[in-house]
Specification:
This protein is of the alpha/beta class. It is built from 4 helices and 6 strands.
C-alpha cells in the first residue's frame, strides 16, 4: 500500500521481497511506529482479520494508523530502514515548517510527504527532496 503523497526513486521490489517472508507486514517507520501510509503485507487470513479489525476500530482509535499500531502485538512486523524516507524521522516528528537544512539518506528508495500540512506544502517538500536526491 502506498499513499498518494509518495515519490519513488529506486526499485525496491527485491528489498521488500527479501523482508516479507519473515514478517506479516513491513512498513515505513513513522518515528518508531508503523506508518499506515506505506507498507507491504502478506495476503492471508491473519492479516485480513487484522485489517478488518483496523476498519472496525479506527474511528475509536483516531485513525487507521493508530488502530494498526494498537494491534501490532498480534502480527510480526518489521519497520523499514531510513531508505524509506520521511521528514518526520529527521525532524523529531514535527510538522514540516519549510526548513531545508536536512539531507535524505544516501540510499533512498522513496519519500513519503507526511508530517506536512496541505497539498501545496507537500508538493514543495517533494520537490525539495527530489532536487536533493537528484543532486547526488
Amino acid at each position: 500500500h502506498a499513499d498518494c503523497d509518495i515519490q519513488f526513486f529506486a526499485d525496491m521490489f527485491n528489498d521488500i521481497s527479501s523482508r516479507i517472508p519473515q514478517y506479516d507486514l513491513v512498513a515505513q517507520s513513522d518515528c518508531g511506529t508503523i506508518c499506515a501510509g506505506f507498507f507491504a503485507c502478506k495476503s492471508n487470513e491473519k492479516m485480513r482479520g487484522i485489517f478488518k479489525e483496523v476498519l472496525s476500530t479506527m474511528d475509536q482509535a483516531g485513525n487507521d494508523q493508530h488502530a494498526l499500531n494498537g494491534l501490532r502485538s498480534r502480527f510480526a512486523c518489521q519497520l523499514l530502514p531510513p531508505a524509506y524516507f520521511t521528514i518526520g524521522n529527521v525532524n523529531g516528528g514535527r510538522v514540516w515548517s519549510g526548513e531545508t537544512n536536512f539531507m535524505p539518506p544516501k540510499k533512498v528508495f522513496m519519500h513519503h510527504a507526511n508530517y506536512v500540512v496541505g497539498p501545496e506544502k507537500k508538493m514543495e517538500l517533494m520537490n525539495i527532496i527530489m532536487d536533493k536526491v537528484k543532486s547526488r
